[in-house]
Write a structure and sequence with these properties.
By secondary structure, the protein is an alpha+beta fold. Helix content is 42%, strand content 19%. It has 13 helices and twelve strands. Strands 2-1-5-4-3 form a five-stranded antiparallel beta sheet, with helices on both faces. It has a five-stranded antiparallel beta sheet with strand order 7-6-12-11-10.
Length: 371
């Protein structure tokens, strides 16, 4: 009986998060338990042509490609499933009368042989929808006794798939930030929520190898030669990590220190938790080193990418970063001052600043040159 396999199935479900192909294996395992010939766990994005298959077994690989070309975003099976009661599996008994006359059924489903279906919605919001579904070949009996077993598992399946989606999104955002940092001419480091270095760009590796006053400790933390500057650096890093809890403790002033060649450098610490690249991830911090004799003209593109600024917000950040007024910006761009203030509020929200003076300091204290 399926009820005797419930705890085993729950273990397989949560164990999927510990393995690289865990959800693929879990989908195939669960399909075998309920006697399915094929099945999948899939997310489709609504506003862009994108699909993420977490698990798929038993379907024709060539027809899967055809699905992406012809039916992505227009799947009548899911559209009908999404209209049913949430929180439970539904069989083909709820299919509308015209479903088997649809192009989707006759060009994608029928050629593969499945005739009996059971599925459930895992997620359905403005951005994407996610489902789990299983099918049996024509001539086999309906899914019936398996419904109760699958309904009992559904909360666990939803929790695990949702967790995997968040993990994938966080990893993609972190990869995007790393790629951005690698384009910088300035030495740049990304620290995790414990203050340990998680990523170093090419310029940072060169800077560390030259032994010019900044180095990595055995525990993976950034250190400066000189106790006073080192204490200031540690304070600023931990303040940036905790900025969401105590936003007033982060200083706008960079940490300055002497290089081994007798020159000076400044370190700017930028909290990244509010950045669009890091939404939903734990606190992270960017540390950027600027050699004071190599400061070039302000290039705002780095801020636009780090904080996810729109075109107008980028223009406004560049404008006020040069010390110009909001009123002049409105006049120069032909918009109302009230509209300019609205853009400024959005800019302050994305950069986690509360006053225009803080925003100007954030921009001017980190002049990072992009390749």
């Amino acid at each position: 009986m399926l009820t005797n396999r419930y705890l085993e199935a729950v273990d397989h479900c949560y164990g999927a998060l510990d393995r690289p192909d865990g959800l693929q294996e879990f989908g195939a395992y669960l399909g075998a338990v309920v006697g399915a010939d094929a099945g999948d766990i899939v997310s489709e994005w609504k506003c862009r042509p994108a699909i993420r298959t977490y698990s798929s077994f038993g379907f024709d690989p060539d027809l899967r490609i055809a699905y992406d070309d012809d039916f992505l975003g227009d799947n009548p099976w899911f559209d009908n499933l999404a209209r049913q009661k949430m929180g439970c599996f539904h069989t083909d008994a709820v299919d509308p009368p015209d479903y088997r006359n649809s192009v989707y059924f006759n060009e994608w489903v029928r050629p593969q042989g499945p005739d009996r279906t059971i599925g459930a919605v895992l997620q359905n919001d403005m951005e994407k929808h996610t489902w789990v579904g299983f099918v049996r070949a024509a001539g086999r009996q309906d899914f019936d006794g398996e419904t109760g077993f699958l309904n009992a598992l559904l909360p666990h399946i939803r929790r695990v798939v949702t967790s995997q989606i968040r993990i994938d999104e966080a990893e993609a955002k972190i990869s995007g930030m790393n790629a951005l940092m690698d384009r910088m001419d300035a030495p740049a480091f990304i620290l995790d929520s414990a203050g340990k270095v998680d990523f170093v760009n090419d310029a940072g590796h060169r800077f560390l190898s030259e032994g010019r006053g900044l180095h990595l400790s055995k525990t993976g933390h950034l250190r400066i030669y000189g106790s006073r500057a080192n204490a200031q650096l540690n304070h600023q890093i931990h303040a940036a990590i905790n900025i969401m809890a105590a936003p007033d403790i982060l200083s706008d002033e960079p940490v300055t220190f002497e290089l081994s060649a007798g020159e000076s450098a400044a370190i700017n610490i930028l909290p990244l938790r509010g950045s669009s690249l890091f939404a939903g991830t734990s606190a992270r911090v960017a540390v950027i080193v600027t050699e004071l004799d190599k400061i070039g003209p302000l290039d705002i593109r780095a801020y636009a990418e780090i904080f996810g600024l729109t075109g107008t917000e980028t223009q406004l950040a560049h404008w006020i970063g040069q010390g110009r007024s909001l009123t002049d910006f409105a006049a120069n761009t032909g918009i109302a001052v009230s509209t300019a203030r609205w853009h400024l509020r959005n800019l302050e929200t994305k950069t986690e600043t509360t006053r225009i003076e803080e925003l100007v300091a954030l921009i001017q204290n980190s002049r990072c040159l992009l390749r």
